[in-house]
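Structure first, sequence second, as always.
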C-alpha cells in the first residue's frame, strides 16, 4: 500500500496500490554498497558493546531519509500506528505540529485547546532540549516520541523564541481530542469558522457548523464569512480539497506534480459546491498556516473567491508518500511531489502572501480623559431638528462628562507563558490563540470590518 500526506507528522491523504518503479542503478552503486557493507561489519564486530542488526539497519535507514529533507523519514511499527491514530483526530501528547530545522525541533503550529496552546507555545518556536536532553542528538521521530508519553505526566521543554532569551516550559501531557472546526455567529450576520486541522472529520464538521450558524442567525441574513486558518498545521489532502470545494462552484483547487507521472493529478471544484451561495469571504492566515490550509487559502485566493488577510503563511508545498514496510511493520515517509495553486504557483519555502497584510495585535481600551463633544460645552444649542424645542433653547450648563483621570498601566514588553521558567530573563509572547475570533483579535476585527464595508458598499450601490 502507498499513502500520501501533507504534514510533517504524516497525516494520511489517500490509499493507493503500491507500484514501485524500477530505478536504474548509478554506475558506482556497487562501490557505495560495498562501502556500506564494510562499515556495517566493522560496527557490528568492533563497537564497544554488542548492537543488534535491527538497530543498525533502522539507524541507517533513518539517516538516509533524514538527509533528504525535513519531512522524509522512517517510522517504526509503533510510530506508524500512532500516525494512523493521529489522522482520526484523537491522540495523546502535547498537541503541536513540529518539523526539524537545523538540528532543532521547530513548532509549525500548536493546536487549539491543547497543552501546547494553553501553555503559550507559538509558531516558529524552536525546541532546543526535551527534559534536559538536546534535540540535536535526535531525529524528528525520536523527538516526537519523547514529547509523547502517558497522560498526566510532565515534560520540560527548553525553548528558543526569536527576539527573546531562551526559557523553559513544563507541559502536562493530555489525551488530545481535536475538534477540527469551531464556529460562532458574530454580530447577528457574520459566520466565523475556524478550522484547526484537516483530519478525517473536518469537512463534515465544517458543513454542520455552517448550517448551525444559518439556523442561529434566523431572520438575520448572513452578510459574510470569516474563515480562520491561522495556526492550522494542515492534514489530509482530500479534506483540504473538500473544504475548498465548500466555497467554490467551479475552477481548479490544486494540482500535484512529481517526478513520476503517477504522482501527477489535478483537483477541480464541483458545481453547486458553495455552501454559502457566494457570500463575501475573508480568510485569515499567518505563519502557522501550513500545508493543507495553504491549499485552501491558495485555491480561494487564485479563484478570486476570498480576500486573504493576515501575514505570510508557513510555505510547506510538498507532498509525502507513506510506504508501509512489511518486513518491520513500520513505514517510510518520502517526499514525492510538490503541489501548485490554481495559478500555477509553488508555495514551497515561500508561503502565500495575503491580499491585505495585517500584523497580529491585541486590542485594548485606551484609558484617559474623555474627548469633549459639542453637547458637553456650557450653553450649547440643543439639536434643532423636528423634535427640538425653541431654537433659542440651550442646554443647561453642566460639567462635561469626563472619566476620572487615571494613569493606565503600560503593558510590559514581554511576558512568559504561564508556568514558564526564564533562562534567565522573561521572554516576549505574541497574541494568544485563545483570543482568536474575539473582540481582542485585531486581525479578526479587521476582517469583520472589511466584510461590513463590502456589504455597505453593495447596499449603497443598489440604491
Amino acid at each position: 500500500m502507498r499513502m500520501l500526506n501533507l504534514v510533517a507528522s504524516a497525516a494520511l491523504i489517500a490509499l493507493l496500490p503500491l507500484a514501485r518503479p524500477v530505478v536504474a542503478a548509478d554506475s558506482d552503486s556497487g562501490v557505495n554498497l560495498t562501502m556500506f557493507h564494510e562499515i556495517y561489519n566493522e560496527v557490528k564486530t568492533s563497537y564497544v558493546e554488542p548492537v543488534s542488526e535491527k538497530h543498525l539497519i533502522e539507524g541507517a535507514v533513518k539517516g538516509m531519509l533524514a538527509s533528504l529533507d525535513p519531512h522524509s523519514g522512517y517510522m517504526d511499527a509503533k510510530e506508524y500506528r500512532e500516525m494512523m491514530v493521529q489522522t482520526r483526530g484523537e491522540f495523546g501528547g502535547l498537541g503541536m505540529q513540529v518539523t526539524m530545522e537545523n538540528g532543532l525541533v521547530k513548532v509549525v503550529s500548536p493546536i487549539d485547546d491543547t497543552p501546547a496552546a494553553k501553555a503559550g507555545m507559538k509558531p516558529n518556536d524552536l525546541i532546543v532540549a526535551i527534559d534536559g536532553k538536546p534535540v540535536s542528538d535526535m531525529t524528528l521521530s525520536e523527538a516526537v516520541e519523547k514529547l509523547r508519553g502517558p497522560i498526566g505526566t510532565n515534560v520540560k521543554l527548553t525553548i528558543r523564541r526569536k527576539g527573546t532569551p531562551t526559557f523553559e516550559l513544563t507541559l502536562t501531557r493530555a489525551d488530545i481530542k481535536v475538534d477540527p472546526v469551531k464556529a460562532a455567529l458574530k454580530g447577528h450576520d457574520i459566520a466565523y469558522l475556524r478550522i484547526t486541522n484537516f483530519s478525517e472529520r473536518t469537512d463534515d464538521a465544517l458543513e454542520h457548523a455552517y448550517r448551525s450558524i444559518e439556523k442561529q442567525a434566523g431572520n438575520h441574513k448572513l452578510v459574510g464569512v470569516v474563515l480562520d486558518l491561522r495556526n492550522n498545521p494542515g492534514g489530509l489532502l482530500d479534506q483540504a480539497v473538500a473544504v475548498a470545494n465548500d466555497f467554490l462552484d467551479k475552477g481548479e483547487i490544486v494540482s500535484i506534480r512529481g517526478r513520476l507521472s503517477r504522482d501527477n493529478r489535478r483537483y477541480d471544484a464541483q458545481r453547486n459546491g458553495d455552501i454559502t451561495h457566494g457570500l463575501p469571504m475573508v480568510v485569515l492566515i499567518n505563519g502557522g498556516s501550513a500545508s493543507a490550509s495553504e491549499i485552501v487559502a491558495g485555491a480561494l485566493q487564485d479563484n478570486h473567491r476570498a480576500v486573504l488577510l493576515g501575514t505570510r503563511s508557513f510555505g510547506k508545498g510538498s507532498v509525502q508518500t507513506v510506504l508501509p514496510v512489511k518486513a518491520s511493520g513500520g513505514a517510510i515517509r518520502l517526499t514525492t511531489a510538490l503541489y501548485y495553486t490554481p495559478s500555477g504557483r509553488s508555495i514551497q519555502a515561500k508561503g502565500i502572501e495575503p491580499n491585505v497584510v495585517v500584523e497580529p495585535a491585541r486590542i485594548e481600551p485606551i484609558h484617559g480623559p474623555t474627548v469633549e463633544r459639542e453637547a458637553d460645552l456650557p450653553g450649547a444649542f440643543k439639536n434643532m431638528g423636528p423634535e427640538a424645542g425653541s431654537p433659542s433653547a440651550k442646554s443647561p450648563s453642566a460639567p462635561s462628562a469626563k472619566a476620572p483621570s487615571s494613569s493606565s498601566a503600560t503593558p510590559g514588553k514581554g511576558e512568559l507563558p504561564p508556568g514558564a521558567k526564564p533562562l534567565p530573563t522573561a521572554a516576549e509572547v505574541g497574541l494568544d490563540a485563545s483570543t482568536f475570533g474575539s473582540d481582542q483579535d485585531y486581525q479578526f476585527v479587521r476582517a469583520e470590518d472589511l466584510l461590513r464595508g463590502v456589504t455597505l458598499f453593495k447596499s449603497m450601490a443598489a440604491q
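Margin note: The CA atoms of residues 5 and 12 lie 5 Å apart.
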